[in-house]
C-alpha cells in the first residue's frame, strides 16, 4: 500500500490515505490487569508495525541495530522529560473536574 501511495504522489495523482491498524501492546492503565488473551496479543505482536519497520530497515541496510537503539533511547528520553514536566505541574482541584469530561445536563 505504501509503495502504491508513493508512486501515486510522485506521479502527481494526488494524496493517498493509508490505514494502519495497531493495538496497544501494554494495558490501558499501568498496574491494572489486561483483559486481552495471550493468544490475541501474540497475533498483534506478530503484526506490530514498529517491529516490522525495524526489521525492514535492518534488512535493507537503512539502519543499524545501534541506530535503532539510539532512536529508541532518544524517544524514551523525550517521554521521560514529558512525564517529568507533567508531574511538575500543580494538580487541578478535584472540584469541577467533571466539567472537563462530561456534557452538562440540560
Summarize this, please?
The protein starts with a helix and ends in an 18-residue tail after the last helix. The protein has helices at 2-10, 38-46, 49-59, 65-88. The chain is built from four helices and no strands.
What can you see in these coordinates?
By secondary structure, this protein is mostly helical. It has helices spanning 2-10, 38-46, 49-59, 65-88.
Outline:
extended
| Tally of strands | 0
Give the proportion of residues in helices.
Answer: 40-55%
Q: Please, how many helices?
A: 4
* Beta-strand percentage range: under 5%
Q: Major β-sheet, in short?
A: none
Coarse structural class: mainly alpha
**Gyration radius over CA:** 21 Å
* Distance, first to last CA: 47 Å
Mean pLDDT: 89
> Which residue ranges are poorly predicted, with pLDDT under 50 across at least 5 consecutive positions?
none
Query: What is the chain-wise order of helices and strands?
Result: HHHH
Amino acid at each position: 500500500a505504501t509503495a502504491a501511495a508513493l508512486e501515486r504522489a510522485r506521479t502527481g495523482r494526488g494524496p493517498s490515505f493509508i490505514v494502519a491498524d495497531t493495538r496497544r501492546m501494554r494495558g490501558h492503565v499501568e498496574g491494572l490487569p489486561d483483559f486481552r488473551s495471550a493468544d490475541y496479543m501474540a497475533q498483534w505482536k506478530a503484526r506490530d508495525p514498529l517491529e516490522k519497520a525495524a526489521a525492514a530497515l535492518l534488512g535493507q541496510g537503512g539502519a543499524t541495530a545501534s541506530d535503532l537503539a539510539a532512536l529508541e533511547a532518544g524517544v524514551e528520553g523525550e517521554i521521560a522529560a514529558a512525564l517529568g514536566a507533567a508531574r511538575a505541574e500543580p494538580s487541578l482541584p478535584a472540584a469541577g473536574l467533571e466539567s472537563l469530561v462530561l456534557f452538562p445536563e440540560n
